[in-house]
Amino acid sequence: MKSFPSKRPDIQLIVRAQRLDDLEALYAMREQAGVRPNVLALPFTDPDRFRERTGPGRDGMYRLVAEAILPDGVRLLVGSLGLFQGQLSSAHRADMGIQVHEDYQEIGVGSALMAAMCDLADNWLNLHRVELEVFTDNPRGIALYKKFGFEIEATLHHYAYRNGEYVDAYFMGRINPRHLHKESKL
User: Fold this and answer.
1) What is the mean pLDDT of residues 60-77?
2) Which CATH superfamily is domain 2-179 in?
3) What is the pTM of this model?
4) What's the confidence (pLDDT) of residue 40?
5) CB 46 within 8 A of CB 63
6) How many CB atoms lie within 10 A of CB 175?
7) Which helix or strand (DSSP H or E) is residue 3 part of?
């Protein structure tokens, strides 16, 4: 568990490993109108199927959650991030996905989760690269990823069907900064 700053002085943010008792709050967050359209989720998903997909997984699955500690001491789950390491010849890379509670966006939850993920990926797992897809109409998400070193590598046209239309996404990647080498001069 690690504390992170919040843009709201009355709220403290912590990031920790996901627990089984988080699944109900994660499902409710994912179903929010301000969250679902950006996380490739269909409405009316069966909660039991969600628990199967989001609960304990295989080796190489790392799930983080952000909690907001309110002035009265109440703790609320306000975000989550999954990091999914590849296997075999892809073990040097991972995919990631993130969601932030619609009432706690723009206060630092995404930054806290991304900082924790980058620390885990770079300094503990020694991953070479982390990849993600983000809808092109999600400027806040794109700005967050760029803040942490992700670059747009491709546009995925008609990537997903959302709310009655095909929408585009960017494929973004981040190389571990310790793995970037300066070009050698011959």
Assistant:
1) 95
2) Gcn5-related N-acetyltransferase (GNAT) (3.40.630.30)
3) 0.90
4) 76
5) no
6) 16
7) strand 2-4
